[in-house]
Design brief:
The chain is mainly beta. The protein has a single domain, classed as Lipocalin (Beta Barrel), CATH 2.40.128. It has one helix and eight strands; from the N terminus they run αββββββββ. It has one helix spanning 2-20; strands spanning 31-35, 49-51, 56-58, 61-71, 74-83, 90-100, 103-110, 113-123. A hairpin with a 2-residue loop joins β4 and β5 (74-83). It starts with a helix and ends in a 5-residue tail after the last strand.
């Protein structure tokens, strides 16, 4: 019985290590990003984005990253987003220009109009 417990514990430890070491799908520092124009201490929940390796989230949207393609500093990926209050996930194509691991510009096209927003890294947690 003792050896089964040890084997089960080792398996649990291995699974936990793999889950916490999720691969970063974009060359960004993990943590919270604020609008480039907002001082980090003044950031609000509505305007921050958080990057956790395989997700780039914004306020009420939890977005899983997949199918990443890069060309220079430009990264395009598929985002499958679970939006608070919506039953069906939203799938969209997102383009980021990543100048360095702590700065990016996101470009979105809505109703045929393109807009870009710059973000800067603030901390490893959404709020300190």
């Amino acid at each position: 019985m003792k050896s089964q417990f040890s084997l089960g514990l080792l398996t649990l430890c291995a699974l936990t290590a793999n889950a916490s070491a999720a691969q970063d799908l974009l060359p960004l520092e993990r943590g919270a990003y604020a609008l480039e124009t907002t001082p980090c201490p003044e950031r609000s929940r509505a305007e921050i984005m958080t990057f956790w390796g395989d997700r780039l989230n914004q306020s009420a949207a939890d977005c899983k990253i997949s199918d990443v393609k890069s060309q220079g500093q430009s990264y395009t990926y598929r985002a499958q987003c679970k939006i608070d209050g919506e039953r069906k996930p939203r799938v969209e194509t997102v383009t980021l220009r990543i100048a360095n691991p702590k700065h990016f510009v996101i470009t979105q096209v809505v109703d045929g109009k393109s807009s870009s927003t710059a973000y800067k890294w603030c901390s490893y947690r959404a709020f300190d």
